[in-house]
Write a structure and sequence with these properties.
Radius of gyration: 16 Å
Strand order of the largest sheet: 1-2-5
Number of helices: 0
Largest sheet: 3 strands, antiparallel
Structural class: mainly beta
Distance between the termini: 60 Å
Strand content: 35-45%
Length: 71
């Protein structure tokens, strides 16, 4: 018997596409500010960290999205 396997040696990539560069949050969007982007590995977790933390899952369409509460 033989076993076939593949080894993933590629580095996952992630990019933020929303908000656009130089965008800002206004009072209407403080509690539901959307951040989204692209990613290279479906099913993986995209983690945001800093003053506010959040996570999203990379979908089959190689996109992710999450809503931040900036209040």
């Amino acid at each position: 018997a033989s076993v076939l396997y593949s080894k993933d040696t590629g580095i996952p990539t992630v990019a933020i596409t929303r908000p656009a560069p130089n965008a800002y949050a206004n009072a209407a969007s403080y509690t539901a500010f959307t951040v989204s982007g692209t990613c290279s590995e479906s099913g993986r977790t995209v983690s945001l960290s800093g003053a506010i933390t959040a996570s999203a899952t990379c979908t089959g369409g190689n996109t992710w999205s999450t809503s931040l509460d900036l209040s």
